[in-house]
Amino acid sequence: MARLADYFLVVTYDLDKRVEGEGQGRIIQRFPEKDWEDSPFPQGIELFCQPSGWQLAPEQQPASFFVAVLTDINSERHYCACFTFWEGLDNSQLQKAEASEVDEVDEEPAVVQSAQLFAPKSLVLVSRLDYTDVFRNCLGLIYTVHVDGLTVPLETVIGNLLTCVIPIAGGSQRTITLGAGDRQVIQTPIDDALPVSGSSVAQLFRQLGIVNVLYLFCAALTEHKILFLSSSYQRLTDACRGLLAIMFPLKYSFTYVPILPGKLLEVLSTPTPFIIGVNSFFRSETQELLDVIIADLDGGTVTIPECVHISLLPEPLLQQTQTALSMVLDPELEVADQAFPPASTQPSALKIQDKEIRAVFLWLFAQLFEGYRWCLHIIRIHPEPVIRFHKAAFLGQRALTEDDFLMKVLDGMAFARFVSERGPPYRATDLFDDLAANHVERIRQEEACPHKVMNHVKELAEQLFRNENPYPAVAMHKVTRPSENGQNPAQNQRIFPVLDDVAVQLFIDHATAKLKTAPPVVKAELKGMVPSGPPLGDIVDRNGSVMANSARRLEVVRNCITYIFDNKMLEAKKLMPAVLRALKGRAARICLTQELNQHVLQNRAVLDDQQFDYIVRMMNCTLQDCSHIDEHGIAAALLPLVTAFCRKLGAGITQFAYSCVQEHMVWTTMQFWESMFYSDVQSHIRALYLETDEGGQHNHSPHQQQQQQQLEGSAGGREVSALELASEQNRLWPTLAKEMQAERVQKEESTVFSQAIHYANRMSYLLLPLDTSKNRLLRSSGLGDVESVSNSYVTNSIAGSMAESYDTESGFEDAESSDVANSVVRFINRFVDKVCNESGVTNEHLKALHAMIPDIVQMHIETLDAVHRESKRLPPIQKPKLLRPLLLPGEELVMDAMRVHLVPDGREEATGLMGGPPLLPAEGAVFLTTYRLIFKGTPTDPLVGEEVVTRSFPIASLTKEKRISVTLPMDQYVQEGLQLRSCTFQLMKIAFDEEVASDLAEVFKKHMHKLRYPQHVQGTFAFTVGQSGKMVVEHKAKDKNQSLRTLSKNLVKSAKKTIGRQYVTRKKYAPPTWENRSSLQSELDEDEISVSEEVEPSSLTLSSTIRSSDRQTMSNVVERACCRDYQRLGLGTLSNSLTRSKNEPFRISTVNRMYTVCRSYPGLLIVPQSIPDTTIQRISRCYRQNRFPVVCWRNSRTKAVLLRSAGLHAKGVVGFFKSPNAPTAVPSQADSTSLEQEKYLQAIISSMPSYSESGGRNTLSGFTSTHMNTSDSSDKLRQPKIGALMKQVMGTKEDVPGTFSRGGHFCHLTSALGQRAKVISLSQPKVSGKARSSPRGKWGSIRGSGRLSAYNPDVGTRLAGKESPQPNGGPSEALFLRQHKAYLYIIGDKAQLKGGKQDSFQQWEVVPIEVCDVRQVKNSFKKLMKACVPSSSTTDPSMSFLRCLEDSEWMALLHRVLQVSVLVVELLDTGSSVMVSLEDGWDVTTQVVSLVQLLSDPYYRTFDGFRLLVEKEWLSFGHRFSHRGAQTLGSQSSGFTPVFLQFLDCVHQIHLQFPMEFEFSQYYLKFLAYHYVSNRFRTFLLDSDYERIELGVLYEEKGERKSPQVCKSVWDYIDRLSKKTPIFFNYMFSPEDEEVLRPYTFISNLKVWDFYVEETLSEGPSYDWELRGRPERLAEEAPEKADGGAGPKSRRRIVWPCCDSLSKAAPDAITKLLQDLQGLEAELGQTSEKWKDTWDKIKTAQRVESKLESKPSFSSSLLMSSNLSHQRRSQGVYLQETGAGSSINLALECEASATSTPVAGRTSTSTLYNQFRSTESENRSFEGILYKKGALLKPWKPRWFVLDKTKHQLRYYESRQDKECKGVIELAEVESVTPGTPAMGAPKNVDEKAFFDLKTTKRVYNFCAQDSHNAQLWMDSVQSCLSDA
Questions:
Q1: Could you tell me the CA-to-CA distances from 393 to 294, 408, 519 in Å, in that order?
Q2: What span, in angstroms and rounded, lies between the C-alpha atoms of 656 and 640?
Q3: Which string of b and e fits 885-914 if b means at least 16 CB within 10 Å?
Q4: In this structure, are residues 673 and 763 in contact, taking their beta carbons and an 8 Å threshold?
Q5: Quick check: 979 pLDDT over 60?
Q6: Closest by Cα among 1735, 1882, 1877 to 1808
Q7: The dihedral formed by the CA atoms of 157, 163, 168 and 171, expressed in degrees to the nearest 10
Q8: What is residue 262's three-state secondary structure?
């Protein structure tokens, strides 16, 4: 029961305290005057009576009423009902007031007097009950009594009001009367837990709208500040009441002031959340509040400041709530669009609507807090329950961890209060408890259907309404209102009287006395067990956060754990990556904890190292994906496991798993430990009571037993939950004896205490790092600030290196005690304080705990030290064994294995992205040897763990290294690494393992540099091979061959004498300065020239310089100087006397035998017979590097010669082309040189038969006739091509006259680079008319006719074979063409030939072309490497392989070189000599000259010839291999320029187009490409023969090698290898006699060389033949053995292109046959024949056979020659760019040859079919086993049948392996195939339908297949063959 009103007051305007119009209120009377004990009088009521301030008014206002709410210090709310009316003031009162004011303010008081003023007076009721209407009625009655002057004394009315007592709740109704003839009925709510709202909620929604109110609702729940504005006070109160009502079941526990007086506005700037109402009058003062949400009730707006973020309800709840609310408030909305809307869709009455809205919010909360009771931990039951809420578990199970709104609500004060009020399991329950427990299912099912939701809402609304209005019918109010005249202000001058205190007090005392004597009203509270509702488990599935196909993942996790504990480590390793992926899912993590639990026996599980490592890895992975609050309880489940799994480290030392899983944030969050602690305490307390109940069952009273059974019954056979137990215990508590009670309290307390000790231990396990000496505590985790949360996890499964991996200072606030132990102690202390205080542990116990903690920590540190020591000794496990690489003989390790990871680069083949297994990343080791850098290891992906990955490259080919940092996928930490790029198209990205010290990595780099760039060429592997392992830096090698040494010394000495003093001061091996990169003449060159001029040539003959003991080495010089080749070409022989017979045009000159004329030329050179050596020395100075023109090849048919030289010096050019009749007074020295040059060129021209045969008679007829005789008819046909070619090379676009002129005029060329032509404007010279028109009579001499025109415009046209009208009526086209062909074409560099004077000679023409300079090649190669071997994969389309390839312009460079070469070939073939005179004569010149010879002369396309070509043109003529390959420290800066590689690529392109013209295979070219940079052989070292002689490596004797394995020369090596294996041989080699090759050169015809893009990861590069293992033999034999038992087993194996060597795995047919042959011979014990002999035998046999064949069979000439390529040979098809686009210019001879059949004697027509009868080559359309009935009386036999469509026959064999055919059924003879019947003696148990017959013209064959299906297949196959035929 409670008083209706506690106090009654009268408050009036205080005239005395008025300050400047601001009045104050004053309480003039208050009843009772003494405070009630249970509710003290609230202070400051005067302020609330006039919230806007006390003021006088000039006219009377109507009476007003509102209720303000005050909150006292105990947070009890007092409702102050204020009834205010206005009274007139009489003047006397005013004047008194005025007078007192005048003293202070000097002002005339005369103003106010005239008008009458009214002052407010308030009657106030203070109550703890909220009955607004009752208060309004009561105060109104008092006012009425006063105004209308009713007879009832006011004292009586007030006395009755103050003594009125009503029940608080229970749904009763009371009728009250105040004794003034009134009557009111008060209905008390049924359940006072539910708020009473009247219609305030509906009102609020009407004022603000749905969305706004929802914003306010969320803001209130998430603790924001909310301010209501309205001009009505009562509305402010209602709005606040409404907002609180919809928050039920949560209660608002912050500042709540529905009406705030203006004087207290500063309260609004409080930092705490609030709900406050303020009159709109003060709106301006609320403007500057920055963080307050303002709701304007009158305007219907809600203003949210920018800085405030309101978290809204989680979807889909928000949507559902809005829908439900709009259905309540605006039911018409739904049917607004209907054609026939239902008649009545009015919203309910306000009161009902109010309850419906509240019902929606109740329904919302039931969903939000669904299952909350399952997350309550009860930690004490007696003396009263202590309950904690496990927030993380709740969020985790609801899958709402990310949800902002719910997080904030659960953290808020309102929810804390909710838990403390609703947590206890034994209490009275209300509507919400019922809803949350019993309607969960219904809510869940209906939530998607709004109408069902509405029905539910209406039911709830009904209950709410009934709660407020238990007796809705009753309305017996009788309240008197003041009469009309009472309200009329004019008569109403009566002042409210002063009441009689005593009379009122008597009423009150009387009533109190009566209450004391009355018996207490006891209304039993219905306490009961609070139902918990269905457990939370199923919710997750509904939210779908369980991953799809999780069952499969759980299976994987389970299997892996089983394998680990069964010690099947390989299996476990394979599953590991899948498990680690699966553990991202929650289900898998929970599964892991359950599985591991099963392997723990008596709290302990001892593992071996490998098992321990895997378990720890899985735990780390699991924890790593848990958040810091551990919402799924996974860390909680693992906590007991990490202290259970362990491994023995040594005697008595055990390492537990916890020392390896400390790196996770979850261990440093206080929340986690608290919830863990509470859940453990709960389970212990539950156990405690379960025991006592079971133990004490028999001595309970029967009633209690019955209760117990009921309890168990209600639990429905489940385990009894802790809350249920607690509820039962609470119910029994009052019935227990005092001792029992005390005992229970004590037991619980000690349970909590023991758990606290246990947790102090656990926390020290997980917080103390393994190595406590380091000041490192969980990185900079926030043990200091409990709530800090970070999501960066680093796991590291190797226990030993845990401590070292992060050596940071621990992140504690108080750094002075950053000692780990102290910080851990502080953290544990804080935890213990918190949980013990909450769970009521006694102080003594708490002190004891504090004393224990430091000891626990210290003890643990000591055990950890031992563990740490031991774990350091452990070998780090789980790393694969390091594989040792095979080394070459003489190759030695410089640095042994360094463990690294090979990381994938941009090539996708090996990573599994393009299919196939992910071979990379791989882990293994990198080895640095004197020759190579090798990685060898195994893939990290366990599915291919058996494979071996090898990548290596010669250290000499390293072009670039850079540091990188790599993140490895398996371990999550970043490693430093290196990226190494090699010009053998290999790239290694390696990341050093953490066991490799960083200084070791530095040493590795230093060694690598030393090996890559030795001081001198003698430091390279080719020289140091086989020497001691120390790195050779300076060479002091002892010389073996004395005579050789002296020769070298003499040669060098004489060269020094010759050159003069400059070289004397140099160190012995300094490369001469002219080798520097300057392409133009340097000062020093001129010096050399002048010095060399002074030497007497006669003093330098060979015989004078070489002593007799060295004579024999001279023959070496002769042999090496390629004299054999010169003899073959008819360019002269070297007779003993070193003199020449004069009748040959060329001689071998020894002018350079001492390398004095040209240091980079060979010692013996071919020069014209007529030029003396002295001239040569002079001429040489005009050319760069003294490289004067020498002959290097002669066309055996046309006798045209090919010359090579460097470009001219700039000063030489002028003299060279100066016309002889220039006005010079005295011939200068330059002139004489240029005359000698002319003489030299003239001598070359005269050596040509076409010139000399005309006997020097330069008459036209003579020339023409001889020429016609010597050149064959095909020459005529070929002629027109040259012009087209010239144009391509020189790059004209149309036939512009003057594009090309003889003698000295050079046209501007455009480089005809296929698609990328850079066009330069062509100068069109004016033709002088005078010159044209002056006829010269007869044609005159050849010299003369050139002067016909200064710029002869017709050369290009003539060369293109166009008609050219002659002004002087010269001869017709054919003859004219012959006459105008130059005898010598000079291919010169356009850039160098600029500005030369024009020349008068007619005999030669200069063809200026643009060449690519070395820099271009270098850059292009760099880009090519990046395209072929990208360092990282990219999705950028502009970085695709083809785009990068194009950008590199490599193909364009090849095109340019090939194009020039083809032009030269054409010119030579038509009988003109060509001199290639480009750059320094050792790069492009060498390429062009070599290619020309290769294309023109079949000899160079054989092994011997190609070797000779390379030795002659590249080695002897001084291509600077060391310099271009940057092989030594000196040339490091110049960088790598692969000129030779470019040449090999060109050869490869030609080889592709003419596969039958080369004796060597493509592999041969790749082999050279690899080894010319590998420095394994000495062949490609040094820059010239001179340098090789100086080092004594040029003429090494055959017999004096230290070990036969070490080859010094690549050619010897190839010879030796060719004897063993046909790898270098091209089986398709069948050359045509004297064939000149003319390849297509356009970019579209060129292919990327596979040398650039292929790699074999299984064995590394295949070019070091000794390193190729021979595993294939074993691999093939193994399956055959297995075949015996297991039936037919597939003999296929998968071949991965980037892993296996294709040539080995799938060899071509011939290699395979040769291998088989060798194998068979070995088996039979015969001495195996050399493969070459076998091959030659077969070829001769074939030739004979092909002669016998009557006509050539094209289908059978499969291999030896293809007819297609024969045609391709003889058609010269050239694409030429003309103005009209690209037209094809076919040679005239192709009509003749296209129809020609191959000659019978050639091998091309032979057939190989019968040569190899093995079954491999047969065509098998269908095969299998059939039973065949023998002839008469013979049994059925199984035979292997083969159906061959090609030969149209059915063959059979004894068995599948059999090679010999048993018999043949020709299909041509077969008449029919029919199903047969079983005959006598047929195989048993066979289906009848398996028989079939084959009828031929001769007999019927009976067959039986294995089953009917097979029989049908056979019949169909045979039938289809027959029908095909």
A1: 36, 15, 50
A2: 11
A3: bebbebbbebbebbbbbbbbbbbebbbbee
A4: yes
A5: yes
A6: 1735
A7: -60
A8: helix
Q: Which residue from 1076, 957, 980, 1013 is spatially nearest to 1536, judged by alpha carbons? A: 957
Decide if pLDDT at 542 tops 80. no
Closest CA to 1592 of 1046, 1036, 1017: 1046
Among 1129, 1162, 1123, residue whose Cα is nearest residue 1145? 1129
pLDDT number for residue 156? 85
Residue type, 1244: I
Cα radius of gyration (the chain): 55
Q: Are the C-beta atoms of residues 345 and 707 closer than 8 Å to each other?
A: no
Q: Give the E-state strand segments of 548-644 in sequence order.
A: 605-607
Which residues, listed in sequence order, are joined to residue 659 by a DSSP beta bridge?
Answer: none
Pairing of strands 1836-1844, 1849-1853: antiparallel
Q: What is the mean pLDDT of residues 1335-1342?
A: 34
Amino acid present at 1291? G
Residue 1401 has a pLDDT of 52
Helix axes 550-565, 609-624, angle to 10 degrees: 150
Average pLDDT, the chain: 74
CB 217 within 8 A of CB 239: no
- In angstroms, what CA-CA distances link 1643 with 1012, 1315, 1439, 1544, 1768? 35, 8, 20, 17, 18
Residues 6+ positions from 427 with CB-CB distance below 8 Å: 527, 528, 530
Q: Name which of 1175, 1172, 1177, 1171 is nearest 1157 in CA terms.
A: 1177
Of 394-398, 489-493, 1032-1036, minimum mean pLDDT range: 1032-1036
- Whose CA is closest to 671, among 834, 516, 559, 558? 834
Please give the DSSP secondary-structure letter assigned to residue 1515: I
- Cis peptide bond prior to 347, omega within 30° of 0: no
Measure Cα distances from 1460 to 888, 1457, 1466, 1491, 1539 in Å: 41, 5, 10, 10, 16
Alpha-helical regions (H) of 806-942: 820-838, 843-873
Alpha helices in 1725-1845 (DSSP H): 1731-1748, 1763-1770, 1790-1794
Provide the 3-class DSSP secondary structure of residue 186. strand
* CA 658 distance to own-chain centroid: 32
C-beta of residue 821 within 8 angstroms of C-beta of residue 773: no
The amino acid at residue 1373 is: E
CA–CA distance, 764 with 767 (Å, rounded to integer) = 5
Residue 783: Cβ-neighbour burial (10 angstroms; 0-12, 13-18, 19+): buried
CA distances from 1891 to 1650, 1840, 1912 (A): 54, 16, 9
Q: Rounded CA gap, 345 and 331, in Å?
A: 6
Is the pTM higher than 0.90?
Answer: no
- 689 CB contacts (<8 Å, ≥6 apart)? 381, 725, 729
> Which of 947-951, 1234-1238, 1512-1516, 1765-1769 has the lowest average pLDDT?
1765-1769
Which tokens sit at 1171? 């030029």
H-helix segments, 1605-1693:
1610-1620, 1672-1686
692-716 in b/e form (b: 16+ CB < 10 A) is ebeeeeeeeeeebeeebeebeeeee
The distance between the two most distant Cα atoms of the chain, rounded to a whole number of Å, is 169
* Amino acid identity for residue 1896 in this structure: T
Give every strand in the sheet of 932-939, ordered side by side: 949-954, 932-939, 922-929, 893-903, 986-992, 974-982, 958-967
- Which residues have C-beta within 8 Å of that of residue 700, sequence separation ≥ 6? 708
Tokens of 1729: 């024949």
> DSSP of 1476-1501, one letter per residue?
EE-TTSSSHHHHHHHHHHHHH-GGGG
Report which residue type is found at 1685.
G
